[in-house]
Amino acid sequence: MAASDVQNMQSAEEREEINRWLPITANRNAKWYYSTFHNVTAVVGAGVLGLPYAMSQLGWIPGILALGISWIVTFYSFWQLIQMHEMEPEKRFDRYSELGEYAYGPTVGYWMVTPQQLIVQVATDIVYMVTGGKSLKKSCDMLHSWFSGVRQTYFILVFAFIQLILSQVPDFNSLKIVSLAAAVMSFAYSMIAFVASLIRGADNRKNVSYGVRSHTTAGVVFDVFSSLGTIAFAFAGHSVALEIQATIPSPSRKPMWRGVIVAYIIVAICYFCVSIGGFWAFGDQVDDDVLVTLEKPDWLIVVANFMVFIHVLGSYQVFAIVVFDKMESYLLQVRKLTPGRSLRLITRSLYVAMTAFIGILIPFFGGLLGFFGGLAFSSTSYFLPGIFWLALKKPKKWSFHWCASYVCITIGILITILAPIGGLRTIVVSASTYKMFT
């Protein structure tokens, strides 16, 4: 049953009471700069470390073009979402699904958005489970040889234990300090990866090749598909855009847009520096996580990997809070459960445990980026905003916004079709040499 169908059966007072408890709408006192670090935390995540690998699958010119086009397209689609948040007087679309329902009705609109958004949120958190565990293990391995014998599974469990604690925060704004720390860490480790790559590249120029990774036609084609998903994964912030804007008091459009502009400038700096610097330094031999390729100086790589660990602690929560909101909304509105700490403890702990279990089973970083990036991220970030804009704003045919919306839709659909093919192949190849619970 769609959320709006349930709400129609409830009084306005009941809906308002539920909204005051749900994590997305419980607190609307956010400042414009909260938007900046929430969006940096959401966008500049683990995906930035995979961009040099995507460049190695595409080559110099196609790689830079793909990254640049994605930045422009998603910046524009972000603007569209912000403009539609309060497009009707006295009405706010505080959740992505609410905008879909308004555009295409309570049933079609709800199912257009909710499955896609949940795939994005859950897939991101699974990848962050893997990334957090791998980064912590890398730091510990370099600190002392004793840790080299400890399975990655245990490091993922450490990450999951911390998430069990963080997941009990009552609302989105309660994450502001965690999100700020995560945003600072993401910029810091991106710059470390960039500078360290330049240093390594300057010392290792003779052994670098800039051809694409694969040497067969089939391999090149699959790599291109996978790289599109990796790039799409790197622009994942749209799936929480309206939920972030929901924490800002009305009128929210200007402060949200100001925060997004600052955030996207930081995104551009991090993405282009890391992708170009990493590919220049290591060429087609770069790993799917550029920090894995970097080995010296030891202390700097230890610090960078620990920064990644801190960052994904916050990023996990920014994406998980939307899932928590949907779970708790369903339990309160449909199952008529009583709100309270026990409800939060049980539902959120089960979610953390589920993502940890899947992350332990499928720790294929590069394949996960490509597969999930294409499967769902391209819809929420690339073409759903354009579809809703055409339905609600009805721009004049051949006008700028009409053409721009169709360009975004076309690019997003192509990524949705092609990227999962390459990502799935990477997972299959990785799985052939992997033992579970390592």
Give the low-pLDDT segments: none
The proportion of residues in beta strands is: under 5%
Largest sheet: number of strands, sense, barrel closure: none
Average pLDDT works out at 88
Q: So how many helices?
A: 17
> What's the gyration radius in Å?
21 Å
Overall form: globular
Portion in helices: over 70%
Order of helices and strands: HHHHHHHHHHHHHHHHH
Structural class: mainly alpha
Distance between the termini: 41 Å
Number of strands: 0
Q: What does the model show?
A:
The protein is built from 17 helices and no strands. The chain is mostly helical. Helix 7 (108-143) packs across helix 8 (152-166) and helix 9 runs antiparallel to helix 14 (298-333). It is globular. The two termini are 41 Å apart.
Features:
438 residues; mainly alpha; single chain
Summarize the entry for a quick read:
The chain has helices at 3-8, 12-19, 32-43, 51-58, 60-85, 96-104, 108-143, 152-166, 176-203, 217-234, 241-245, 253-282, 290-293, 298-333, 341-361, 365-393, 400-431. With 438 residues, it is mainly α.
Write the layout of secondary structure elements.
Layout: H1 3-8, H2 12-19, H3 32-43, H4 51-58, H5 60-85, H6 96-104, H7 108-143, H8 152-166, H9 176-203, H10 217-234, H11 241-245, H12 253-282, H13 290-293, H14 298-333, H15 341-361, H16 365-393, H17 400-431
Helix pairs in contact: 3-9, 3-12, 4-5, 4-10, 4-12, 5-12, 5-16, 5-17, 6-7, 7-8, 7-14, 7-15, 7-16, 8-14, 8-15, 9-12, 9-14, 10-16, 10-17, 16-17
